Amino acid sequence: MPRASPYFRPALIFTALLLAAGFALRVLPSAAESARSIPPPALDEPASPQATSEVAVLAGGCFWGVQGVFQHVEGVTSAVSGYAGGAANTARYEMVSTNTTGHAEAVRVTFDPRRVSYGHILQIYFAVAHDPTELNRQGPDVGTQYRSAIFPTNSEQTRIAESYIAQLNQTHNAAIATKIEPGRDFYPAEDYHQDFLTRNPNYPYIVINDLPKIENLKRLFPDLYRPTPVLVAAARS
To answer: Which end of the chain is more exposed for a tag (fewer CB within 10 A), N or C?
Structure first.
């Protein structure tokens, strides 16, 4: 996302002018076309009626869009924007933005594995939430804090993620750049980053980069799409 105050981002003035001039008609299709239909993972977790909650931590560029996507996924009970990959004392937006902390902007996705499997969470992540072939960047955002990374919370998730990346590399023209980084803690981001897509649907960055992801989720995963997002603010009220 643009490097500036969360409330006033001068870098977006140019984008806003483009939108006003009608350039969105040329920009939005390219964002929509970045989604891809991919097969589900050949290896997935077995269904277990005893397991009612599981956590996945995923990084794929600016967390506004990744959070927004998973908030619309059936079976997801929480999606929180935050940081993973670095130390607790550097898990702050202005520090992470310096690209020196080791953190990536990440989303902690809590889901009911009886309703959506970890493998299907990864399928949405690779197909809709971001472009896994881009190295240390997503769209206009550049730096290791925007890297494609999976932070598995157990050894089974590591095994499934490794298997799925190998599977996708057999069918993709471009190599998957996603790294698997086990053993890393997740730290929630500041309140002003939570539910950002839902609260700011007309924000130029959201319009160009993230709203097409929601449409792609609805188009490619109609059985897993839900129109009403699960919000961090609702969980706190």
So the answer is: C
Question: Does the annotation count 62 as an active-site position?
Answer: yes
- Burial 7-38, CB ≥16 within 10 A → b, else e: eebeebeebeeebeeeebeebbeebeebbeeb
Domain that holds residue 64: 50-200+220-236
Structure tokens at 96: 């992470």
**Any domain includes 4:** no
| Counted domains in the chain | 1
Q: Do the Cβ atoms of 226 and 37 come closer than 8 Å?
A: no
Domain-located, residue 27: no
| Helix residue spans in 22-128 (DSSP H) | 24-33, 63-71, 93-96, 118-124
Backbone angles phi, psi at 104, to 5 degrees: -120, 145
**Closest CA relative to residue 184, chosen from 77, 111, 82, 92:** 82
DSSP 194: T
170 in a structural domain? yes
Among the listed residues 56, 62, 91, 127, the single catalytic one is 62
The helix/strand/coil state of 37 is coil
Write the pLDDT tens digit of every residue in 174-197: 899 999 999 999 999 999 999 999
Using CA atoms in the order 77, 82, 229, 18, what is the torsion angle rounded to 10 degrees?
Answer: -160
* CA–CA dist 196, 201 (Å, integer): 8
Q: Is residue 65 situated within a structural domain?
A: yes
pLDDT tens readout for residues 89-119? 999 999 999 999 999 999 999 999 999 999 9
